[in-house]
Design brief:
Order of helices and strands: EHEHEHEHHEHEHEHEEHEHHHHHHEE
Strand order of the largest sheet: 7-6-5-4-3-2-1-8-9-10
Cofactor: [4Fe-4S] cluster
Strand content: 15-25%
Shape: globular
Structural class: alpha/beta
InterPro entries: 4Fe4S-binding_SPASM_dom (IPR023885), Aldolase_TIM (IPR013785), Elp3/MiaA/NifB-like_rSAM (IPR006638), PqqE-like (IPR017200), Radical_SAM_PqqE_MftC-like (IPR050377), rSAM (IPR007197), rSAM_sf (IPR058240)
Keywords: 4Fe-4S, Iron, Iron-sulfur, Metal-binding, S-adenosyl-L-methionine
Domain Radical SAM core: 12-228
CATH architecture of the domain at 17-305: Alpha-Beta Barrel
Protein name: Radical SAM protein
CATH class of the domain at 17-305: Alpha Beta
Length: 414
């Protein structure tokens, strides 16, 4: 299965786990896509350039590379890049929506040396197709899992949880279990890219009071079923189920260890831009481009990649600054917080925080304040309102409306 924890020495910062966007070209116009994928970037790396990047990754001791898009299989050199990674001793894996994966492509991926594939399944059929904005997308993802398993690949799934699909979690687990997945990653949809245009689909921080215990209950079942269920880096944080959620083995005592961007993790955009995590906003987190600098120089010298290495509790603000877990958590997921407030260090998507406020009869609500620009990995701005825990829930209307664009007007604009 795709690695979800890469063991390295505590003081040995290097890009052990790399997520590489081969192309922004995509065959699905997903409503929650952080990169706003569709057409390719105008200056994407060609196959020969990409093969050169593989050698640089080997030199920097990368252990696993996850190929993404858009859709990675739409890059002309996809299989050549998989072969090169395998030859270099780097585990090649992939995350995909699966729409274009048939039996022949699945076999070719296996023959090229691909180790495992995580298929994105965002709810049952109705919710998934709404989020993906593509008819029969759920069916194609389900078929892709079958083709990949038949080809002999390890197959996992991943799910973005939001207000469109949060009711599907238990039934979706049953569906995925029946398909024979070996692992399932569950994360929350962040206010990034197209999701920033659709704030009604996003979870509110207090929704974690419902979602996190349900994911924890599913993890207990997953242990019994032999499935590795892991939360994404933006779900959880120091509630009573933290050790259960973060541990690979039953009875473990693992917990969130802070943002690993630029420490153990590296992201590469399809034009060669390098940042500490694939989901980080391009600005201000791109540290350089592989067309102009070597990977080693960017990793070692770019301040944009070193922020997590140098972060201290003094960089935190709001609730996170005074949190008893501040020195370990360091404000949780960087890109999730930055997508809300234009800077990291204060993350309301925290189970401990939601529980603490609930014990005081309070909750936090995110209110859209400024629109995103419409570029890959962009974000708007939100205001944070503290209100009574039992405050009336604003009407949201039918679920179909949650995936419609409702971006707010930018301040100062008509």
């Amino acid at each position: 299965m795709p690695l979800r924890r890469v063991p390295v020495l505590p003081d040995d910062d290097h890009p052990a786990y790399v997520v590489w966007e081969l192309t922004l070209r995509c065959d699905q116009p997903c409503a929650h896509c952080g990169s706003r994928a569709g057409g390719p970037r105008t200056t994407e790396l060609g196959t020969e350039e990409a093969l050169g990047v593989v050698q640089q990754l080997k030199e920097r001791r990368a252990r696993e590379v996850v190929l993404i898009g858009g859709e990675a299989y739409l890059h002309e050199g996809f299989l050549d890049i998989v072969r090169a990674l395998k030859t270099a001793g780097i585990r090649p894996t992939m995350t995909t929506g699966g729409r274009g994966i048939d039996a022949a492509l699945a076999r070719a991926m296996k023959e090229a040396g691909l180790h495992s594939v995580s298929v994105s399944v965002d709810g049952l059929a109705r919710a998934h197709d709404l989020i993906r904005r593509a008819k029969s997308s759920f069916e194609s993802a389900t078929r892709a899992i079958g083709h990949l398993r038949a080809a002999g690949l390890f197959v996992a799934a991943n799910t973005n949880v939001n207000r469109v699909n949060r009711g599907d979690l238990e039934a979706l687990y049953e569906h995925l279990r029946a398909l024979g997945i070996v692992a399932w990653q569950v994360q929350i949809t962040a206010a990034l890219g197209r999701a920033a245009d659709r704030p009604d689909m996003l979870l509110q921080p207090y929704d974690l009071l419902d979602v996190v215990p349900r994911v924890a209950a599913l993890k207990r079942r997953a242990f019994r079923d032999g499935i590795t269920l892991m939360p994404g880096n933006n779900l959880g944080y120091f509630g009573p189920e933290e050790a259960l959620l973060r541990s690979v083995k039953e009875g473990g005592r693992d917990h969130f260890m802070g943002c690993q961007a630029g420490r153990r993790v590296l992201g590469i955009e399809s034009d060669g831009a390098v940042k500490g995590c694939p989901s980080l906003q391009s600005h201000p987190y791109v540290g350089g481009t592989l067309r102009e600098q070597s990977l080693g120089a960017i990793w070692d010298e770019a301040p944009a990649l070193a922020f997590a290495r140098n972060r201290t509790p003094d960089d935190l603000w709001g609730f996170c600054r005074a949190c008893p877990f501040a020195e370990v958590c360091m404000g949780g997921c960087t890109f999730t917080a930055h997508a809300l407030f234009g800077r990291p260090g204060n993350n309301p998507y925290c189970h401990f925080r939601a529980r603490t406020l609930a014990a005081e009869g309070k909750r936090e609500r995110l209110v859209p304040a400024a629109a995103a620009e419409g570029k890959p990995f962009d974000h708007g701005l939100f205001e944070l309102v503290v209100e009574a825990l039992d405050a009336p829930e604003p009407p949201l209307g039918p679920v179909e409306g949650l995936v419609q664009i409702t971006r707010p007007v930018r301040k100062g604009q008509a």
